[in-house]
Amino acid sequence: MKKVIPKMMCGVYIIGMILLLSACNSQLDIQQQYPFTLSAMPVPKSIAIGEKVEIRMKLLREGYFEEAEYYIRYFQVDGAGDLKLEDGTVFLPNDLYKLTEEVFRLYYTSKSTDQQKIDIYVEDNFGQTEQITFNFNNKKAEK
User: Fold this and answer.
1) Dihedral, CA atoms, 120, 122, 128, 132, nearest 10 degrees?
2) Do residues 79 and 110 make contact, with C-beta atoms less than 8 angstroms apart?
3) 43 Cβ partners below 8 Å, 6+ apart?
4) Considering only CA atoms, which of 44, 33, 61 is closest in space to residue 136?
5) Going residue by residue through the chain (143 aa), what tens digit of pLDDT does each one get?
6) Are 139 and 52 in contact (CB under 8 A)?
7) Percent of residues in the chain assigned helix, strand, coil, to nearest 5
8) Which of 119, 125, 121 is nearest to 73 (CA)?
9) How far apart are CA 118 and CA 123, in angstroms?
10) What's the rounded Cα separation, in Å, for the pair 136 and 75?
């Protein structure tokens, strides 16, 4: 019996080591996809034809992955107008443009006397999309 107990302990020890070594993974888990949201400063509720409105926006990321890329597009739901980025890039509706900054400004110029509504979409290269909507009423010209 004295010889059996050390052999059993040695067997349990070997089985434990095998289980421990097989549970280890030499690969690192690197998270690439992090959720994000958009925030915007308040904008005027009314806009006259030809008037330009500044839209200050910020991309809020929950984590940082160096190779994450962000793209912006917009869609004019109601009315008519132009949207451009602070560097002068004029957006075409539903075309995708790369965002190079996390804090940026957009400029919307009204070309309509009707109510106007634009949807702005920001998406990353992992397929996540965030949307923000802006509504503008027609500002009557003062007499």
Assistant:
1) -40
2) yes
3) 53, 54, 55, 134, 136
4) 44
5) 667 777 777 777 888 777 766 666 666 666 677 889 999 999 999 999 999 999 999 999 887 777 889 999 999 999 999 999 999 999 999 999 999 899 999 999 999 888 999 999 999 888 899 999 999 998 875 54
6) no
7) 15, 45, 45
8) 121
9) 16
10) 14
Tokens at 131, concatenated:
């949307």
| Beta-sheet pairing, 36-40 with 52-61 | antiparallel
Asked whether the beta carbons of 46 and 136 are under 8 A apart, the reply is yes
DSSP β-ladder status, 81-85 and 36-40: unpaired
CA angle centred on 68, ends 62 and 70, rounded to 5°: 90
How far apart are the C-alpha atoms of 105 and 65, rounded to whole Å? Answer: 23
The total number of residues shown for the chain amounts to 143
Token pair, residue 75, equals 């869609």
